[in-house]
C-alpha cells in the first residue's frame, strides 16, 4: 500500500497568549486524519472548532504542539511544498492583475515569464475568466476573485489541495457553480483534497469522506463517514438523492450536538 | 469625497477664482495709499509698508519671470534641492523602514533612538548642516532629507507591519522565498504607504530647501526672500512667497498625477468599473 498523501497523527495545537503566558488555549487535540492520494476529504464542525488551525498545520504554516504530519510518507518540516492552499479570506495580491496573480507561483518557481503568462492565461480560461487577466482584484467580484485564487492554486499543479471554506463568502448560486467547477477540475486531475467547511451539504456533495470535529476547545474528530455517492456529481441535483439524505441524517445526528455545544459556549463567552 | 457633476465642478472653479480675485481686491483696497483712510495706522503709507501692495507684487513677479527673467536660475536651484531631498530621503526611508520592519531585534534596539530623532525639531539642524556641507545645495538637501526620511520611514515600517497575513501566507504557499517575498509582497505593500505620504513628504522637501536657503545661501528663492527682507522690501518678500506657493501647488498636482498612474491597482471611490 502506498503512503497516504497527507497524514496527521496525534496533532495538538495549544496557543499561549503573548502578554500572559499562563493563559493557554488548546484549539485542537489528538487529531488523527489521513487523506489518500486522489481522495477528497471534507472536515465539518461547528464554528471555532479549530478547522483552520488544522489546515495551517497541514500546510506547514503552523507547527503543531504535539503529534506529527507526514506528506506521502515523509515527515513534514517547514512549509508543505507539495500542497496548494486556498484561503477563506481574500489572498490575492491586490497590486497584481488576475493574470499576474495566477502566474505568481510559477514565477516564484523560476519559470520564464512568457511561458508563465501563457499558462496563467490557460488557467484563467479554464476557470471561466478568459479576457479578465488584466483586471486588478478590486475590479473583480467576490466570485471572480475566488476563481482567480483557484487558478492560482491549481496552476502549480500541487499534489495536495487544502481548501479553507473557500466559498463561504459567495452567494448560493455562484457557490454551486464554483463547487461543480472544482469537482470537474478535481475529477480530471485526481489530487488529494482536504476541504474545510461548516456546510454539511457542501461537504457531502463534494467529498469521498466526511470527518466531523467536536466543538472547541480541544476539538478532535468524533466521527468519520464514507460518502459512497456515484461520480460525477452535480452538487445541486445530488442533494435530492435518497442516499444523500440518508448520509446527511446520519452525520447531522453526530454534528448537531456539537453545534449546539459550540453555540452555547459562544453565548457563554459573550456573557462573561 | 463625492465627485461633483461637471457643470457643478465648473461652477466651483469659478467660485474659487472669484474668491482669489476678491482676496487680492480687498488686499489692494486696504493697502493702496490714499484709497481709503487709514483704519489702524497713523499714516496711510504704513499699511503698504507692512503688508505690501498686490500691484507691486505682481509687477515684481512679472519682472522676475518676463522682463529680467532672472528668477529661473533661483527656481531651478530650489527645485533641484527639493527633488534631491525627496529622492534621497524616500530611498533611505524605504530601505530603513523595510530593514527595521523585517529585523525585530534591530528595531527593538533602535526604537528609542528613532523616537528621539523623530521628536527632535530637526529644522535647528540647518545651521549645523551649513557648517558641515557649506552654503551650497548640499546643506539644503541634507535638511530636506532629514524631514522626508522620517515620514517615509514610518509609513514603510507601518506598511510592512500591516501586510495582510493571508496574502503573506498565500505567497509563501505559492513558493516565494525570502527575497521574493520582499520584492513581490513587502515592497509593493510598503510602496502604497509611501505614496499615501507622498504629498506630505514632497511638501516637506520643499520646506527643507526654502528654509535652508533662508538661513544661509547665495542662490534660490529662499535667498531672494532673505535679500528682500534685509532691505524691508515687503513686496518682493510677498512676491517670493507667492511664487513658492504656486510651485508647491504645481508639485502637489504632479505628485497626484504620478500617484494615480502608479497606484491604479488601488480601488478609488469614483471608480465603478466592477464586473
Tell me about this structure:
The complex is a heterodimer of chains A (272) and B (275). In chain A, 37% of the residues lie in helices and 23% in strands. Chain A is of the alpha/beta class and 272 residues long. Chain A folds into two domains: 6-82 and 158-271, 3-Layer(aba) Sandwich (Rossmann fold); 90-157, no CATH class. In chain B, 77% of the residues lie in helices and 0% in strands. Chain B contains twelve helices and no strands. Chain B is elongated, with a radius of gyration of 24 Å. The chains are: A alpha/beta (272), B mainly alpha (275). Chain A binds chain B through residues 59, 61, 79-81, 83-85, 87, 89-97, 104-105, 108-109, 132, 135-141, 144, 149, 152, 156, and chain B through 164, 166-167, 169-177, 180, 184-185, 188-189, 192, 264-267, 271, 273-275.
| Level-2 CATH architecture of the largest domain in chain A | 3-Layer(aba) Sandwich
**How many strand segments of chain A?**
10
| Low-pLDDT regions of chain B | 270-275
Biggest sheet of chain A: strands, sense, closure? 6 strands, mixed
CA-atom Rg of chain B in angstroms: 24 Å
Which CATH C-level class of the largest domain in chain A is it?
Answer: Alpha Beta
In whole angstroms, how far apart are the ends of chain A?
51 Å
**Structural class by SSE content of chain B:** mainly alpha
Amino acid at each position: 500500500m502506498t503512503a497516504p498523501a497527507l497524514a496527521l497523527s496525534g496533532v495538538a495545537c495549544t496557543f499561549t497568549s503573548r502578554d500572559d503566558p499562563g493563559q493557554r488555549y488548546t484549539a485542537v487535540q489528538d487529531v488523527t486524519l489521513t487523506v489518500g492520494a486522489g481522495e477528497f476529504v471534507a472536515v465539518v464542525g461547528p464554528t471555532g472548532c479549530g478547522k483552520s488551525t488544522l489546515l495551517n498545520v497541514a500546510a506547514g504554516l503552523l507547527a503543531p504542539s504535539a503529534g506529527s504530519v507526514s506528506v506521502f510518507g515523509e515527515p513534514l518540516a517547514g512549509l508543505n511544498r507539495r500542497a496548494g492552499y486556498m484561503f477563506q479570506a481574500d489572498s490575492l495580491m491586490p497590486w497584481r492583475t488576475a493574470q499576474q496573480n495566477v502566474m505568481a507561483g510559477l514565477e516564484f518557481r523560476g519559470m520564464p515569464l512568457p511561458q508563465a503568462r501563457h499558462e496563467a492565461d490557460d488557467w484563467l480560461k479554464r476557470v471561466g475568466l478568459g479576457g479578465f487577466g488584466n483586471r486588478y482584484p478590486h475590479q473583480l467580484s467576490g466570485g471572480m476573485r475566488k476563481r482567480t485564487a483557484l487558478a492560482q492554486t491549481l496552476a502549480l499543479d500541487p499534489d495536495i489541495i487544502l481548501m479553507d471554506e473557500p466559498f463561504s463568502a459567495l452567494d448560493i448560486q455562484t457557490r454551486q457553480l464554483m463547487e461543480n467547477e472544482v469537482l470537474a477540475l478535481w475529477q480530471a486531475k485526481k489530487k488529494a483534497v482536504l476541504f474545510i467547511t461548516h456546510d454539511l451539504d457542501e461537504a457531502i456533495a463534494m467529498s469521498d469522506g466526511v470527518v466531523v470535529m467536536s466543538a472547541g476547545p480541544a476539538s478532535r474528530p468524533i466521527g468519520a463517514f464514507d460518502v459512497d455517492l456515484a461520480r460525477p456529481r452535480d452538487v445541486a441535483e445530488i442533494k435530492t438523492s435518497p442516499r444523500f439524505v440518508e448520509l446527511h441524517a446520519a452525520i447531522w445526528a453526530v454534528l448537531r450536538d456539537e453545534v449546539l455545544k459550540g453555540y452555547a459556549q459562544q453565548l457563554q463567552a459573550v456573557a462573561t | 469625497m463625492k465627485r461633483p457633476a461637471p457643470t457643478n465642478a465648473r461652477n466651483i472653479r469659478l467660485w474659487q477664482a472669484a474668491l482669489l480675485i476678491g482676496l487680492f481686491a480687498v488686499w489692494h483696497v486696504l493697502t493702496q495709499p490714499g484709497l481709503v483712510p487709514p483704519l489702524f495706522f497713523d499714516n496711510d503709507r504704513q499699511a503698504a509698508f507692512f503688508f505690501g501692495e498686490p500691484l507691486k507684487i505682481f509687477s515684481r513677479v512679472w519682472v522676475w519671470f518676463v522682463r529680467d527673467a532672472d528668477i529661473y536660475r533661483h527656481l531651478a536651484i530650489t527645485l533641484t534641492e527639493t527633488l534631491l531631498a525627496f529622492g534621497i530621503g524616500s530611498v533611505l526611508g524605504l530601505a530603513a523602514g523595510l530593514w527595521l520592519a523585517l529585523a525585530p531585534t534591530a528595531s527593538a534596539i533602535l526604537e528609542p533612538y528613532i523616537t528621539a530623532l523623530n521628536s527632535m525639531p530637526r529644522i535647528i539642524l540647518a545651521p549645523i548642516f551649513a557648517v558641515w556641507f557649506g552654503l551650497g545645495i548640499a546643506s539644503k538637501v541634507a535638511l530636506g532629507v532629514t524631514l522626508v526620511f522620517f515620514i517615509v520611514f514610518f509609513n514603510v515600517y507601518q506598511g510592512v507591519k500591516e501586510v495582510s497575513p493571508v496574502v503573506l501566507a498565500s505567497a509563501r504557499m505559492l513558493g516565494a522565498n525570502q527575497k521574493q517575498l520582499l520584492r513581490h509582497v513587502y515592497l509593493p505593500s510598503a510602496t502604497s504607504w509611501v505614496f499615501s505620504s507622498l504629498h506630505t513628504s514632497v511638501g516637506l522637501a520643499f520646506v527643507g530647501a526654502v528654509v535652508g536657503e533662508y538661513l544661509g545661501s547665495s542662490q534660490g528663492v529662499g535667498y531672494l526672500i532673505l535679500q528682500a527682507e534685509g532691505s524691508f522690501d515687503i513686496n518682493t518678500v510677498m512676491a517670493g512667497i507667492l511664487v513658492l506657493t504656486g510651485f508647491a501647488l504645481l508639485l502637489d498636482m504632479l505628485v497626484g498625477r504620478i500617484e494615480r498612474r502608479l497606484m491604479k491597482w488601488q480601488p478609488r471611490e469614483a471608480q465603478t468599473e466592477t464586473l
